[in-house]
## 1
Amino acid sequence: MADHDGAEGAGDMELYDLRVSVDHIEGRSVCGMAPGDYFELTDSAHLRLPEGRHFCVYALASVLPFLAAKQRDLASGDWLAQDALFACPDPEERLVMRVERTCRRRLNSADLT
């Protein structure tokens, strides 16, 4: 399989890059984010934000434990393979994020920690 850069066989494992975006806000936005705001997780552990944008650290903390699993192939019956929505813990805000796989990337496990 080709990796994101098109090189054949350049690695011994595959992970998905992810995009975590604000899907909707059911309450009032106290963190200054709006639907469509996002960050990307690429190359296993690189968190990227669009220039000049922010992402609430509390929303990030609520989705962070699931990202490593979402980067990997999961069994078809695994709930995490089917669920894509995650909620921020702020009860007044009720911000809901969507986690999507953007591409599959071949990596060298020896290069990762």
## 2
Amino acid sequence: MTSPRIPLAAALAEGPVVLDGGMSNELAADGHDLSDALWSARLLRDAPDAVAAVHRRYYAAGAQVAITASYQASFEGFARVGVDRAEAEELLRRSVTLAREASGSAPERWVAASVGPYGAVLADGSEYVGRYGLTHAQLRAFHAPRAEVLASAAPDVLAVETIPDVDEAAAVLDAVAGLDVPVWLSYSAAEGRTRAGQPLAEAFALARDNAQVIAVGVNCLAPEEAADAVALAAETTGKPVVVYPNSGEGWDATARAWTGPATFSPDRVSTWLASGALLLGGCCRVGADQIAALAKELH
């Protein structure tokens, strides 16, 4: 009989937990075209088995948390390609189900439902800038319905990730308040600031007294900047810190291509741990091989 899965927050009290890596790069390596505006979310409808295969690959590599393929999934985005609301809800729930089934019901494997930023639905790189010109109420109205649907599929945590500015973070936390699911809050950052330019200390402080937030940190930033951000998150909030940098390559939003050398290395893990990280993995362009090496370094 399978042992019951303990809450992720309780697991973090026992020690570090390994996250997966990028979904899109593994799907692309498997030959899938992700040039559509829905990005990997398109495959929730067109090739769900491919998404499940990537989740299984990461679990096999040593990841303990699978982040769902819902980052770029939204009612607005699906509507643009002819998916009605009922089907969109089913696809959002499917993102959680695929990750859960891939886990094989192992007690030390968890599912994080990705709640990406508003900019992701624009498919133009806006999530790396923020400052969309929307009000708090407009951002809340965008995030609340899909967060509710994702929560209804019973993930272990909502991964509010790649958030570019404090204003959007406040709106998302408002949108998920009252949902019976814990949250991690993770900012996209550069040079000690959010992508919108606010100091990271200010951004992290937003989660300090929010009991629903079980971890706070950064993702999709350069690996060499991660340690300082982790230390600041730990100092500012006193909460477990989540960190999953990208490969270190740069994203050219105009050309929709990655440029420059990769700098992600499992050798950095000890520094992240020493700085306070307890949820560690990779983001864009970090694949199963790197997660396997990271898991080996941790355990």
## 3
Amino acid sequence: MYSSYTVCSNSTYLRPPRRGKHKIFIGMAPGVGKTYRMLDEACRQKKDGIDVVLGWLETHDRPETDAKTQGLEVIPPSKIEQGGLIFTEMNTDAIIARQPQLVLVDELAHINIPGAERNRRYQDVETILAAGIDVFSTVNIQHLESLCHQVTQMTGIVVQELIPDSLLEAADQVVVVDVTPETLEERLLEGKIYPTRKIEPSIQNFFRRSNLVALRELALRQVADNIEKKEIQQAARLNSHAKALSANVYCIHERILVCISCEPNSVRLIRRGAIFADYMNAPFYVLFVNNPDHFLTKVEALHVETCKQICQEFKGEFLQVSGQNVAQEIARVAKSYRITQVVLGQTRRSKWQMIFTESLIHQLMRSLHQTDIHIISSEK
């Protein structure tokens, strides 16, 4: 609810309407059941007395989906003439004028016809939310801007219809509609997704098993990461309890931290950490702890700079901190960046050090209870 007030001509004060709540149903590909799930939840809301309307729906003539629309009011689309042809788009103004409690909007990433008031359907949704109306919408994972390049590399298909990641992050709720690749293939072969003439080309292209597996993982990871970000933000907003809460917010997305020194095997550690990060589709960091009592020689400084450049080549973030207690600094950075995997090299310790001092590895194991620690052997 907004805290400001609007002054009307009759000197009365009206509180502006609250912003509507946005629930997004996301899936790995067409046919997983996003629209059906959205309709199913909307029908339950209608039974509970909520005023529900259909703003825009694409059933693709699927009988089960069509059946779910029975009894739901449809807002007639707007008509736009373009090149002598008549096109239809969602009628945002009519939806706002109707003032339902909840509106259903399919195909969130859709690009509107030239001549429409807004260029993208998600902008129409933003306008509806600003008018205080709740929205259920659907989208596939390949339409996220941050993933479009990755999806093109995996599938060979260039996605034109995109939505900003901020839309997903701002949503009040994101629901993953998930099925196995095998189930999706069965639906495709049974003609439940596309007409018969499109089945074989789809199997040879977008619906290849390898593509479906990769897209499914993308969808699950993206939503998991989104949940984690919101948990962290919520903890940060609770000022006095932030530290206590952050300790209890577990990381869902993997994060890799490689700890290097002036030892020559540091480059090998970075490469190994980069392989882990690529395999897990995880953010990647490299940490160098500089002892303030030790002045780096030219050779050591060059070594650190080389490690930094290699880290950046692997799209990682290089971190350099100063501290006398290496274990404490590593633990502090790991907790601050919510690291889940730490990569270390074998440390060379004398016989007396092994007897009288605790190893770096054991110190980290005591400090980082929820973090996996990988020890990479030194090359002979």
## 4
Amino acid sequence: MTTTDIAALSGYELMQWIKTARPLDVPSIGRLLGMELTDVERGRVSFTLATVPDFANPLGTVHGGIAATMLDSAMGCAVHTTLPAGVGYTTLELKVNYIRSVATDGQTLTAEGTVIHSGRSTATAEGRVLDGKGKLVAHGTTTCLILRAPGD
């Protein structure tokens, strides 16, 4: 059994590894929510998930935090695909606009994040969440802080 040294991978390589290896045994927000990384390109990432009753808000529709988490993941991982090995990121700001409610009946949601700018210290990205019929559920933007080693 070979072990992958994820610290040696660029952000793009790491996202490709996650997509192909599907390390479901690794605790993550994706595993918790049932998100699947479905597409990876440099500067663009998409995730899908199926809605479940446990995602319900008090009104019985999918809680807005699910769309926000999908957007944060897709936009942040899109930023990550632009970073070299040993460089990380964290979300500084997340803005979400909710467009329509979603039922908890197993429909598939797709979130796509696309990088707008990736600089030395910050990066920005935009994203969309679509329902199974291709209708816009939510959209957002993010600013990420790029985390480099001291002196880098």
